[in-house]
Specification:
The chain is built from 16 helices and eleven strands. The chain is an alpha/beta fold and about 475 residues long. It has two domains: about 350 residues, Alpha-Beta Complex (Amidase signature (AS) enzymes), CATH 3.90.1300; about 80 residues, no CATH class. It has an eight-stranded mixed β-sheet with strand order 4-6-5-10-11-9-7-8, sandwiched between helices. The protein has a three-stranded mixed β-sheet with strand order 1-3-2, sandwiched between helices. Helix 10 crosses helix 13. The model has no long low-confidence stretch (mean pLDDT about 95). The chain binds glutamine (GLN).
């Protein structure tokens, strides 16, 4: 089997019986065993169950029972519940939590025939941009082991970049799919808010949490999305609408270009992005200058809203119902306090404290209400832009992958990593990061943003771009 295989290629090999699911699954499990000690991208593998499912898939294939992802192994970020398996969110708080049910997207992918290889590493409770806050230790970037893979879906991005999983799920609250995709040179996609169910995904900030994928190609992202998405009565914010039909294939598009967002980038990153713009222009797309006036206040507003929601969501970990229970504490308050002190890491505590503060009487209007108003203005900026363009181009990240521990002292420096991705979550828009070149040997991602339910145009443009470039086919030297 070739090292780099897209889901589409694997499906073709399986359907034409050139390879069995058992062989593919064994190969990926062997790669994880052989090489993941370098990256730390998986926190658990389900070898036996995966091989059993692979045998069953082979039987189905030989009986002609074909499904979109039949017999293809994938990894799930450890934020998604997989029935009967530990789901820890890479936190000591959930160290021994065994999920009693499958997340809807896990179930949907399984119904489409996908096989679960195991769980991937992440920042604790999905809070972070470097995958350094995991209780399982940091993930390393396959392009350079001294660098972070991005976060919080760092394990999923590194696993796909290192070719030890053909695709993985991820979650994106402020950039946690697109930022690691950009740092690791893979395709990171999240749809319109509400299209992928949040049921069974451990909550961080519910109004911003988007399940999505990390894949090698845009075609694969589409394949995963078609199997994952759909209305779910168990998620109160699940959409009853579908994304626009793919039939109306639109070849030439108007692409919004907020050039002020590109002007502060280091040259090494600006250059590949400029090249990407030219390629898209040569394809007959029109570039139109747009303005996003509230872009600069998005990060501040995001950290108010996401921390507020996190402090409410994480209030459930009281040491009584589930989660870590401290051995000390004789009253309920004491037990709760000790359990939370022992169970949560430093960054999670920082978010809970910030969230509790901005929601408190006396500060609520000044912070929380104001941030919500800003959120509306950001959304309106995008809606106005989409009156004259089909899609928007943007950088995915302001830098390439930084060194491990580079931001230990100043967490707000890390928060600025999300400047190009958080506004998109605030507006609930579909977006992806696709590889568009390298800067000093590290991958650079181009972000493409669509209007609500505009996934099909997003996929079209991404597929076109990948048919003209080979950045998505490059492999890190750590693999050879
Ligand atoms: N890095 C951002 C944060 O720490 C985004 C996280 C995410 O998308 N889950 O909040």
């Amino acid at each position: 089997m070739e090292t780099v295989q897209s889901l589409v290629q694997l499906r073709e090999l399986l359907e034409t019986r050139q390879i069995s699911s058992y062989e593919i699954t064994s190969e990926y499990l062997a790669r994880i065993r052989r090489t993941d000690c370098q990256f730390n991208s998986f926190v658990a593998t389900y070898d036996e169950a995966a091989l059993r499912s692979a045998q069953l898939a082979d039987k189905h294939i030989s009986d002609g029972l074909l499904k979109p992802l039949i017999g293809i192994p994938i990894g799930h970020k450890d934020v998604f519940c997989v029935k009967g398996e530990k789901t820890t969110c890479c936190s000591s708080m959930l160290d021994s939590f065994v999920a009693p049910y499958d997340a809807t997207i896990v179930e949907n992918l399984q119904n489409a025939g996908a096989i679960c290889l195991g769980k991937t590493n992440m920042d604790e409770f999905a809070m972070g941009s470097s995958n350094e806050t995991s209780k399982f230790g940091p993930v390393r970037n396959p392009w350079n082991l001294d660098r972070v893979p991005g976060g919080s879906s760092g394990g999923s991005a590194a696993a796909v970049a290192a070719c030890i999983a053909p695709a993985c799920t991820g979650s994106d609250t402020g950039g946690s799919i697109r930022q690691p995709a950009s740092f690791c040179g893979v395709t990171g996609f999240k749809p319109t808010y509400g299209l992928n169910s949040r049921f069974g995904m451990i909550a961080f900030a519910s109004s911003l949490d988007h399940p999505g994928t990390l894949t090698r190609t845009v075609e694969d992202a589409r394949l995963m999305f078609n199997s994952m998405s759909g209305h779910d009565t168990q998620d109160s914010t699940s959409s009853t609408l579908k994304s626009a039909s793919t039939k109306s294939k639109q070849k030439q598009m108007k692409l919004g270009y907020p050039s002020s967002l590109f002007s502060d980038l280091p040259n090494s990153i600006a250059r590949p992005l400029e090249e990407a713009r030219k390629i898209l222009e040569e394809q007959g797309n029109t570039i139109i200058e747009i303005d996003l006036p509230h872009f600069n206040v998005a990060v501040a507003a995001y950290y108010v809203i996401s921390c507020a929601e996190a402090s409410a969501n994480l209030a459930r970990y009281d040491g009584i119902r589930y989660g870590l229970r401290s051995k000390q504490g004789s009253t309920f308050d004491e037990l709760c306090e000790r359990s939370r002190s022992e169970g949560f890491g430093q960054e999670v505590k920082r978010r809970i404290l910030t969230g509790t503060f901005v929601l408190s009487v006396g500060h609520y209007d000044a912070y929380y209400v104001k941030a919500q108003k800003i959120r509306r203005l950001i959304r309106d900026d995008y809606l106005r832009a989409f009156e004259s363009v089909d899609l928007i181009l943007s950088p995915a990240t302001p830098t390439t992958a930084f060194r491990l521990h580079a931001m230990d002292r100043e967490p707000t420096e890390m928060y600025k990593q999300d400047q190009f991705t958080v506004p998109v979550n605030m507006a609930g828009l579909p977006a992806m990061s696709i590889p568009c070149g390298f800067a000093d040997g590290l991958p650079v991602g181009l972000q493409i943003i669509g209007p609500h339910f505009g996934e099909s145009n997003l996929f079209e443009l991404g597929v076109d771009f990948q048919s003209l470039t080979d950045w998505h086919l490059q492999c890190p030297a750590t693999l050879s």
